[in-house]
Amino acid sequence: MGRDVVASCDDTGDVWDNFQCKHYKSALTPTDIWIELGKLVYYTHKGEFTYPREYTFVAPQGAGNKLSKLLKNPNALKKQLKDNWASYCERKISERVVVPLKGDLAAYLDSLDFAIFSSLPPLRLVEQHRQTQWFVHRFGGGLPARPATDDPPTAIASDEAVYVRALLDAYGSRVRKAFTEPKDLEGEDEFVRHFGRSRKEFYSAESLRLFSRDTLPDGEYERLQEQIHDGVADEVDASHSDGYDKVRAVTRAARDLQITSHALVPRMEPRDRGGICHQLANDERVRWVQ
Q1: Which sign, positive or negative, has the C-alpha torsion 128, 132, 137, 142?
Q2: CA–CA dist 23, 61 (Å, integer)
Q3: Please, what is the Cα angle at 69 between 64 and 72, to 5 degrees?
């Protein structure tokens, strides 16, 4: 019924915007749109759906000069639709019925607001697309700058619980002592320093995850995690004197990995690689102490 992309603006669906897409090799002309406007008038008159709030034509080459000028003049647009109705709409809106512009339908058309119609310039479309996670994947050109990573909060967050517990167990395996919570590390200066670095690594990797979510298609960050996991798997399975020795060896191996095929590589920082190891520990995909 002449609707390509519908954007509902309220819960009822009665307020909506329409994006009418034309994948034509040339810029749109008035003759390209009469049938679309005819369908809109006919089906809204029948009550199939409400008249939209906005109606935008989208095409690779945009609207040509003639159509662009016409879209800026609602009265002229309405008049030309009426003048062209018999040729472009009357027998083409429906295969089953002829739709002459007369009576109630003609009066309805006269009552409609034709200021809702516009076209989206291709360059503006590309700039809007640049703000989405699919732009680099589709067009290339490199990722935007990555925001700075905030320092970890003083309190341990709930989503840190698993990897933090794994680190405490790793430290305990070195000194044969149980550490129940981070404050128990007081006096163990080396562990305190390592724990602080590890949290910074984890939060750096989490910021990279969010950056990937905002700039790349779904699943790209998980693919990077998989590459890190595959690269450190042998070190994870190797024999180590204790869990602390293991976590340091695995994160060192992650930092030494040669990763060149992933889009995030140019925006990665050294901390991210160790942080991904802690993310893997947080997901229980790697263990420092068996």
Answers
A1: positive
A2: 9
A3: 125
